[in-house]
Design brief:
alpha/beta; 4-stranded mixed sheet; 21 helices; 3 domains; globular; GMP Synthetase, Chain A, domain 3; 9-stranded mixed sheet
Length: 550
Amino acid sequence: MARAHSIDLPRKGNGPYQLLRGFQDGLVKSFLAALVNPRAAQQARLDLLLLQARGTAFGRAHDLDKVRSLEDWRRAVPLRSHADLLPWLDRVAAGERDVLTREAVTMLLETSGTTGRPKHLPCTRSWARGVSDAQRLWMLALLRDHEGVSRGRALTVVSAAEHARSPGGLPIGSNTGRMHLAQPWYVRWRYPVPYEVFCIDDQDARQYAILRFALQADLSTITTANPSTLLLLVRRMAQWRAELSQDLSDGRLRAGPAAALPAAQRARLERQLRKRPVPTDWRPLSLWPRLSTVNCWKGGSAAYFVERLPEALGGEVPVREVGITASEGYFAVPMGADWGGGVLWTLGHLLEFVGEDGEPRWAWEIEAGERLRLVISTEAGLYRYDMQDEIEVIGRCENTPVVRFIGKSGRFVNATGEKVTEDQVSAAMREAARATGARPVGFTARAHLAEIPFLELALEGLDPALGPALLARFDTALCSLNLEYASKRRSSRLGPPKLCALADGAYARFRRDRVAAGAPEGQVKDPIVALDAAEWGRVVAPDPAHKDRP
């Protein structure tokens, strides 16, 4: 339901908030002004984009020296997918200058879709400043509402800022690692896990080391893009309890997966470890009683995993939305604990929105209740770049829309025209789990084509005795969420959903494979919907020799 959102960032408040607020006065004023006049803010972003793009290969190819207005920009530059922009991006990766922007590219941010080669996206200093400004506003609101986050250490799960070099010599790595290293020393001091840990190649050893360092710290906040990452770490902590106990007692990093670490690396890390008593209660809230917030995505398919957090943590902890963010940029900033989404960040990038009619619109032209596809233009050279992300407008803050993330556009189960979305699959599973007490570790749906097609659900961590009840409640919930699905179930054009039980560790293996393919570890999402046999096989296959069922 649409609602009016308001932002209160007073100069007075608790000590940590007031200190940060004093340093960010100019940013706050610009932000509040942009909320009132988003068109002026977006025209200013266009002016900066043009300043950087004119005289480049892209600028000459699109006659950008003639562009002045937002309407001119649309006429000059077509909408593009990543594949469409790839020839330009490859020239950047090869080391060519002045391709997309006159500003130097400092690194390539690696991300990946569910298939294909990893994407390498340019990063520039002006782009990084826009992302950093949005993060500072988010942190202001966090400190305003939760002073306790400043009283302990901040566990943030990131990936390596550099793990390779492009043909032209540019560093290739993760945006989370880049942001981690870009923080001032007094912020990095609060991180309990040395950055070197996030660069460990072996995923099990890396996760073990993260837990070992976290267990000797007094955590007050945990941040990871995807809540399933935190759930995985909690499961790993239970799995490695004996090994972690031994290393805590010894003040070392040698048991379990840590045995695989090179001796020199282990010696460096062990110099930062201390002996600690072995806990008697391993629930996270007992281990870290001052834990004030967990910060992660809450929208789209993440909602199911957010609901699992209280049980995994051993109690209720405020869960703070981190916003609509990606390696491509920062697009919407949540500024309140009760916000169901974030206000569009019109000071960061040029934003457009495409509805079912295919016509792009600007931020001030979209209305509450609409679902639209996000298109961005950034200072790093992603011009009219179709993110394939679907958002829903849920309200307004002043004259700027507040939006929530739905999921990837085009990702739905569709056997007979029902088009069941990732968001609907996740919502139906939440309802089914609440009703039956089931606690699946992960789940993936696909359309199983047969004489009477049906929706097939792969699940890990399901008690077999609960399977029939879970499927029945899932089916009922999905009928209430998707009228076409309900109609086709009533007419028997679709059969009832069926279960594909997965072995323990299936989604951990999926995550390991996705990270090996270039996805930042903290951003890996479990595949709620499999679009084809290849995606399905990556979830259910025990090994590469797996042959997908018909």
